[in-house]
From TrEMBL:
<dbReference type="InterPro" id="IPR020422">
    <property type="entry name" value="TYR_PHOSPHATASE_DUAL_dom"/>
</dbReference>
<dbReference type="GO" id="GO:0005737">
    <property type="term" value="C:cytoplasm"/>
</dbReference>
<feature type="domain" description="Tyrosine-protein phosphatase">
    <location>
        <begin position="28"/>
        <end position="176"/>
    </location>
</feature>
<feature type="domain" description="Tyrosine specific protein phosphatases">
    <location>
        <begin position="96"/>
        <end position="154"/>
    </location>
</feature>
<dbReference type="InterPro" id="IPR029021">
    <property type="entry name" value="Prot-tyrosine_phosphatase-like"/>
</dbReference>
<comment type="similarity">
    <text>Belongs to the protein-tyrosine phosphatase family. Non-receptor class subfamily.</text>
</comment>
<dbReference type="InterPro" id="IPR000387">
    <property type="entry name" value="Tyr_Pase_dom"/>
</dbReference>
<comment type="function">
    <text>Catalytically inactive phosphatase. Acts as a nuclear anchor for MAPK1/MAPK3 (ERK1/ERK2). Modulates cell-fate decisions and cell migration by spatiotemporal regulation of MAPK1/MAPK3 (ERK1/ERK2). By binding to the F-box of FBXW7, prevents the assembly of FBXW7 into the SCF E3 ubiquitin-protein ligase complex, and thereby inhibits degradation of its substrates. Plays a role in spermatogenesis.</text>
</comment>
<dbReference type="InterPro" id="IPR000340">
    <property type="entry name" value="Dual-sp_phosphatase_cat-dom"/>
</dbReference>
<dbReference type="Pfam" id="PF00782">
    <property type="entry name" value="DSPc"/>
</dbReference>
<dbReference type="InterPro" id="IPR052449">
    <property type="entry name" value="STYX-Interacting_Phosphatase"/>
</dbReference>
<protein>
    <recommendedName>
        <fullName>Serine/threonine/tyrosine-interacting protein</fullName>
    </recommendedName>
</protein>
Length: 202
């Protein structure tokens, strides 16, 4: 695996004219990356359609648990493409299993020229964790650096302790996955043989 060098795109830098954070901004969505927004459910309510359209939103990731479904719901299914995830803001909730599908959803949107809003209820824990995971895997970042990058743009983020632990674990998971994807069949065979203690004869 030492022969495989992973390469990642450069992370967009913070705008010099970025707004100073104020408390009411937590009720709005912020653009974290070009085309990727993070916010609370209040930024995706029916009354906010003009703002969503002004920013060019085409895709929305709605993160909620079943008991929230009556008040956190897709309001514009005829206008935007939705990905709805059933996830509780609970430290024992397994969120890693949802990371691949959310990354695919975001990538497909951005590559087609679309823009994505990721929201939960408050836009602080669940949705923030998914945006952090996306940035980690896309740009090859550690959790603490991705967290700091997102927090520069949405200061109020605060994933719960269980989500933080899973994001820290995800560093090794996504790096291993990407490394295997880049390895040739022979490199994979060599790596498996080394880890199993057997010898490969070439």
């Amino acid at each position: 695996m030492e022969d495989v060098k992973l390469e990642f795109p450069s992370l967009p830098q913070c705008k010099e004219d970025a707004e100073e954070w104020t408390y009411p901004m937590r009720r709005e969505m912020q653009e974290i990356l070009p085309g990727l927004f993070l916010g609370p459910y209040s930024s995706a309510m029916k009354s906010k359609l003009p703002i969503l359209q002004k920013h060019g939103i085409t895709h929305i990731i709605c993160i909620r648990q079943n008991i929230e479904a009556n008040f956190i719901k897709p309001n514009f299914q005829q206008l935007f493409r939705y990905l709805v995830l059933d996830i509780a803001d609970n430290p024992v909730e397994n969120i890693i299993r949802f990371f691949p599908m959310t990354k695919e959803f975001i990538d497909e949107s951005l590559q087609s020229g679309g823009k994505v809003l990721v929201h939960g209820n408050a836009g602080i824990s669940r949705s923030a964790a998914f945006v952090i995971a996306y940035i980690m895997e896309t740009f090859g970042m550690k959790y603490r650096d991705a967290f700091a990058y997102v927090q520069e743009r949405r200061f109020c983020i605060n994933p719960n302790a269980g989500f933080v632990h899973q994001l820290q674990e995800y560093e090794a998971i996504y790096l291993a996955k990407l490394t295997i994807q880049m390895m040739s069949p022979l490199q994979i065979e060599r790596s498996l043989s080394v880890h199993s203690g057997s010898t490969v004869l070439l």
